[in-house]
Amino acid sequence: xxxxxxxxxxxxxxxxxxxxxxxxxxxxxxxxxxxxxxxxxxxxxxxxxxxxxxxxxxxxxxxxxxxxxxxxxxxxxxxxxxxxxxxxxxxxxxxxxxxxxxxxxxxxxxxxxxxxxxxxxxxxxxxxxxxxxxxxxxxxxxxxxxxxxxxxxxxxxxxxxxxxxxxxxxxxxxxxxxxxxxxxxxxxxxxxxxxxxxxxxxxxxxxxxxxxxxxxxxxxxxxxxxxxxxxxxxxxxxxxxxxxxxxxxxxxxxxxxxxxxxxxxxxxxxxxxxxxxxxxxxxxxxxxxxxxxxxxxxxxxxxxxxxxxxxxxxxxxxxxxxxxxxxxxxxxxxxxxxxxxxxxxxxxxxxxxxxxxxxxxxxxxxxxxxxxxxxxxxxxxxxxxxxxxxxxxxxxxxxxxxxxxxxxxxxxxxxxxxxxxxxxxxxxxxxxxxxxxxxxxxxxxxxxxxxxxxxxxxxxxxxxxxxxxxxxxxxxxxxxxxxxxxxxxxxxxxxxxxxxxxxxxxxxxxxxxxxxxxxxxxxxxxxxxxxxxxxxxxxxxxxxxxxxxxxxxxxxxxxxxxxxxxxxxxxxxxxx
Length: 576
Hints:
- This protein is of the alpha/beta class.
- Helices cover 32% and strands 25% of the residues.
- Among the domains are: 106-178, no CATH class; 287-356 and 444-571, P-loop containing nucleotide triphosphate hydrolases (Rossmann fold, 3-Layer(aba) Sandwich).
- The strands form four sheets. An eight-stranded mixed beta sheet has the order 15-16-17-13-18-19-22-21, sandwiched between helices. Strands 6-7-8-3-9-10 form a six-stranded mixed beta sheet, with helices on both faces. A four-stranded antiparallel beta sheet has the order 2-1-4-5.
- It is a peripheral membrane protein.
């Protein structure tokens, strides 16, 4: 193999005096053609800044390469020092030679253009395709990243897609240019394990076909174990350890590397499920959902819509006091829509949602995935915590302030946090604030929608421990929505598996994870990446996700179920 990229003593700084404010300090590495380098580390370690410096996109974020060299061997064999290259030259290598997949797709997609138009633009700029050829190429690449109803989705706008689907669109756009080097910055964070496996299989396939090299930035060391040739561990802007994947995972030399490996939640196929006696013996559910149906009209007819998206179709479950029910499934399966219907954030066509007479007039509260987007940046913590209580009619008095102080102490934040603003906290601290705010009204149920997926593994572990402690102390019931099966295993008592808008398997967490019955549940569990699955081979799954778009007036046939255990039910497939 020949060297494609050689980075030596890279230094990157920000602000008016970049050399005095360096966030990347002396990083060096080599990358060969067809090789994958994983850069791992917690938030603020400098891994994303390092990657953004490779094609000098860091310049647009207020950063500057203050030292070192970035030698890129171009397609014609010439060597370019990206650190010293002019902007005109950089425009020719971005996209065509060095592709980029960003972590947050909503900030990368244009909200006023359809995704079809944006993907077609990528093919036009990088391959010169126009008209029908560009549209067909866009359709093909959407199929490759496993977006259902690809032809219909071409006409969608970004806000009409789930987070996971938006990320797949970003990956499709990056692949449109067939780059020689692909930089992927947390590209699978928002994806469920089955789609994640498909994306990893697709990237592996492209690497084999084109000899494409990859720089893969992630905090998921389990995923790294399956795809990386080498690992570079970063802490506070410095590469503290760098070696072949096996050597780093089996014989870590640096204390920080050992810390990261210990914090990773290990998936054990149900062997680590909670058995803490937290669930109450009462059979009176705190929430009971029966035959929930949520549909969204699409298309325009003369007097009524031509069709509808069956986002949630006949979902039923019960949630007991002190219990955690995890809802798992791939992006677009209806997990978040179910949660929103529970809170009245989306309208339901039919179905019953019954809540028990509990201790609160607002028995259900929610913690969202992105804590920064959930907190008003103009309000300090005191105002943010008081907001739900004031909306309920309470006054900002000593009693309310005592409640704030008590909850801040319980979530592990100092009392002086009350006068600070959201931007003055880390991501994990902001999520703790969101949890404290959700508890202000003393709810019976807390809905956690991907509440830990954006957190570093060590912070994630602390937040999960906090959630378990709060559940024991306050008797809370959690509806925990996640695509991370290792996290689900750690916190859930029961699991409901959703697929194409329907629950296909539900029951005791240990039973579902150790003895999955539905074919989709089996695929879901087999796709979970883990450090233990070192030799895991990602294979392209040709199984098509059923279309959720149905003609107006269509009603699915009634579901048939069978018992697979004492607390384990599975939906029959094709009458079986």
